[in-house]
Amino acid sequence: MKLKTYGPVATILLQAWLPIALVVLWFVGSANSTSVFWPSLSTILQTVVDWAASGKLWGDLVFSFGNYFLALALAIVVGLGFGLVIGLLPRVGQVLSPYLDFFRTLPIVVFVPIVILVLGVGRGPKIFLIFLACVWPILLNCIEGVRAIAPSVFETARSYRIPLGLRIRRVVLPGAAPQIAIGIRLAVTIGLVMLVVSEMYGSTEGVGYFILQSGQRFQLAAAWGGTLLVGVIGWAFTAVYVLIEHRVLAWTREDADVTRTKAVKGDGK
User: Fold this and answer.
1) pLDDT more than 90, % of the chain
2) Count of CA atoms in the C-beta half-sphere (13 A) of 208
């Protein structure tokens, strides 16, 4: 039985209808709320509007997501670099495997106060913490993607004496690309969590700092507003990444369709 497939835009729209319906239900259901802990959605949205009108919102967004994108870019470079080395050299992977298993099980959040105390309260520690959270899913998925490539592919490349650099660009990276894409997608969302957490310690600006200060001042509507803003931005980042991934990895779906067609024809015989 052939399942119906949808394009990336249609998929996003299919996934968006339920959150939109819940937001509408929340807006209507909370319209008459007088609770300090559960303010109405209109009140929450008004705090975001006031935040933007004060001019502080844009500065906080630039600070927070400037750190985020720089850390994510560093995580991609480092994760792919070390992932390729460990994936291509089995002995190196065997030596480093216990250390990788140990460090990936540690919750990154526990490093936040330690890093802040050691490195200070500037942008550097926050970028480092976001990098630390993002690099692991990219690194581990890159390793698994390289290891999943059939040994015969490497043997063929060596028999034709393809240079190592060209082999990595034309054979290894394309072969591991689907798994790498999964790692980057995980890093996109994990990095947003660490973005907020890192700004709750020793920070004077940023979205996470705004949420923390609002909560400490018992301005819960503003804290809700900052939290929802991060969630919406995170969803938008994921949606954009899905569109990019869908375009970049289009060839993998074409190969899968060809394989499926051949399998169907073989069964028909």
Assistant:
1) 40
2) 20
